[in-house]
């Protein structure tokens, strides 16, 4: 850990220790012993700040609760891990976690009708309205991850034995959502370019109809898949689904929060997004948005009455299990939202960055890109079997030589030991970091005397 990182975390933890003294005191103020404890913590904090100012080495913060390592991955490295790139918290989100870390912190001002999306202080109700507007749908709810959005929709429209159309690139959580509802997945095959097309979807629907005697009850397709991050024809697929009167779920796990998404323009009945993948939010977090046509169904309220107590909880939404994303996860998601909205307006720049990097990687002889190219998304799968894997074949560290070389330059997140096919993302990196990243791969190639085509 770099000394500045050490000291900054030590200062943060010392502030929390000072905060604990205040928490332990009475509302009327601290007693003499507590005042002394607070002064001691402040004195220790001043020592840490002085070390930061003078550039001297200070005491390391140690492990949290004695066993949990301090995570400094984002402070000390360039992290190209695809599932983490767009989930890095904003400054505001990190501040929100500090202030709202307590379990039911969002519920301090909960009043009738006692439902999360109705809370006005903090402005959770307004945030739900903004979320729906953000993806151009009529209603939205926060959920504990995109998977819970899939689950809510599947529980709404799928009955035992029903078929659900998914992509041959579908995420496992889509499978589990369908299985949990008693349905069966039917995969649309990829074309030669690894794309899901509207025509292929129509053929699959006809095939299911012929085999089962009835139409699928849901079509669920990723805009950009998680394996290659290729763009699929979601607008055309939605049109096909509606021609059969089948609802369409737009899987925006890798789009909502990083690029503009217009659910109604696509023709989506449901839009699902991932907070921790693409909205600069802590895990688990996500969003489910829908049209007014489907809102009363997917957000249905409970009708059940207790047989002894006659209790009923009519305002609570069944698929949301009453209330969903509470506490610091939700507040951090809200805190990141202004910045998330703004960054979607600069998607073109993110595409320029990934293509800059890929272009540089392809100058290393034998390197290939497996995703569609030029790139349309920051998440990308590459093949370095003909380049870095040639070194791995004779290196004593095998494939880990590349991880070692990257780590020495402060780059992490590639699949450790992988030198054949692997994924990365440049999302959210500055141009300075993207150039540094590209230069590092070139330098490693030059060090091992791999041929490079000069640009």
UniProtKB/TrEMBL annotation:
Enzyme class, UniProt record, top EC level: transferase
Chain residues that bind pyridoxal 5'-phosphate: 146-147, 251, 274-276
Pfam family, one: SepSecS
Gene3D superfamilies the record matches: Aspartate Aminotransferase, domain 1, Type I PLP-dependent aspartate aminotransferase-like (Major domain)
BP GO annotations: translation
A Gene Ontology molecular function term of the record: Sep-tRNA:Cys-tRNA synthase activity
Domain of life, source organism: Archaea
Residue numbers of N6-(pyridoxal phosphate)lysine PTMs: 277
Keyword field: Protein biosynthesis, Pyridoxal phosphate, Transferase
Record function comment: Converts O-phospho-L-seryl-tRNA(Cys) (Sep-tRNA(Cys)) to L-cysteinyl-tRNA(Cys) (Cys-tRNA(Cys)).
Subunit organization: Homodimer. Interacts with SepRS.
Family membership: Belongs to the SepCysS family.
Protein name (record): O-phospho-L-seryl-tRNA:Cys-tRNA synthase
Gene that produces this protein: pscS
């Amino acid at each position: 850990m770099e000394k500045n990182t050490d000291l900054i975390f030590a200062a943060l933890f010392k502030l929390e220790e000072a905060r604990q003294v205040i928490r332990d005191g009475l509302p009327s103020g601290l007693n003499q012993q507590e005042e002394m404890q607070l002064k001691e913590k402040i004195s220790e904090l001043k020592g840490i700040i002085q070390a930061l100012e003078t550039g001297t080495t200070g005491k390391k913060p140690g492990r949290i609760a004695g066993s949990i390592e301090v995570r400094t991955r984002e402070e000390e490295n360039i992290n190209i891990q695809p599932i983490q790139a767009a989930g890095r918290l904003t400054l505001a989100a990190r501040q929100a976690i500090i202030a709202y870390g307590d379990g039911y912190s969002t519920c301090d001002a909960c009043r009738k009708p006692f439902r999360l999306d109705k809370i006005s202080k903090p402005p959770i109700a307004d945030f739900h309205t903004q979320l729906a507007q953000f993806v151009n749908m009529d209603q939205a709810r926060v959920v504990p991850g995109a998977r819970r959005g899939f689950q809510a929709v599947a529980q709404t429209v799928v009955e035992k034995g029903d078929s659900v159309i998914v992509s041959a690139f579908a995420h496992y959580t889509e499978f589990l959502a369908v299985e949990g509802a008693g349905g069966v997945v039917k995969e649309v095959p990829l074309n030669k370019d690894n794309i899901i097309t509207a025509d292929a979807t129509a053929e699959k629907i006809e095939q299911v109809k012929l085999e089962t005697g009835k139409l699928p009850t849901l079509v669920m397709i990723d805009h950009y898949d998680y394996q290659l991050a290729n763009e699929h024809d979601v607008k055309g697929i939605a049109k096909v689904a509606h021609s059969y009167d089948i609802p369409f779920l737009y899987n925006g796990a890798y789009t909502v929060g990083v690029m503009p998404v217009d659910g109604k323009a696509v023709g989506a009945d449901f839009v699902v997004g991932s907070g921790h993948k693409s909205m600069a939010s802590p895990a688990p977090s996500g969003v489910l948005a829908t049209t007014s046509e489907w809102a009363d169904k997917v957000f249905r309220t409970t009708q059940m009455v207790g047989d002894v107590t006659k209790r009923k909880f009519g305002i609570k939404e069944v698929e949301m299990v009453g209330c969903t994303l509470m506490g610091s996860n939700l507040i951090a998601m809200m805190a990141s939202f202004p910045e998330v909205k703004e960054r979607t307006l600069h998607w073109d720049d993110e595409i320029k960055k990934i293509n800059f990097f890929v272009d540089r990687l392809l100058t290393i002889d034998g390197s290939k890109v497996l995703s569609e190219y030029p790139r349309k998304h920051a998440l990308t799968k590459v093949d370095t079997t003909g380049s870095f894997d040639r070194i791995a074949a004779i290196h004593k560290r095998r494939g880990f030589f590349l991880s070692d070389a990257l780590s020495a330059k402060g780059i992490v997140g590639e699949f450790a030991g992988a030198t054949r096919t692997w994924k990365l993302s440049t999302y959210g990196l500055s141009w300075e970091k993207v150039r540094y990243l590209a230069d590092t791969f070139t330098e490693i190639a030059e060090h091992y005397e791999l041929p490079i085509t000069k640009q």
